[in-house]
Amino acid sequence: MVCEKCEKKLVKIATPDPWKAGSRAAAVKGPRRLNENKLYNPYSKAFRKCRICGQSVHQPEAHYCQSCAFKKGICAMCGVRLVNTTNYNQCAV
């Protein structure tokens, strides 16, 4: 769950750039990465730990994982309350 204000920050897409068969970068860098998160770099601080459960967050610059954001009814990036969940029985299965 992401609020309207934080949707504007989600402009970076986790897909590779268009592949050109005859480019010089193809010979230097080797094959392109497949079946993995293109934005994930284990040495950068872009992916944080969730503030509630401590699991790794899969969205860059987010403070909460999707399951905790859904359970609490908050935005995953800024923590603003989106839904009143006082009378809900939320299940993240």
TrEMBL record:
Question: InterPro entries in the record, alphabetically?
Answer: PDZ-binding_CRIPT
Keyword Cytoplasm belongs to the record = yes
Record's keyword terms, sorted: Cytoplasm, mRNA processing, mRNA splicing, Spliceosome
Q: Where does it localize?
A: Cytoplasm
Q: Which GO terms describe its biological process?
A: cytoplasmic microtubule organization; mRNA processing; RNA splicing
Q: Kindly indicate whether the keyword Lipid biosynthesis belongs to this entry.
A: no
**What highest taxon heads this organism's lineage?**
Eukaryota
**Predominant place of localization:** cytoplasm
Q: Which GO terms describe its molecular function?
A: microtubule binding
Write down a Pfam family by its short name.
Answer: Cript
The record's similarity note reads: Belongs to the CRIPT family.
According to UniProt, the name of this protein is: Cysteine-rich PDZ-binding protein
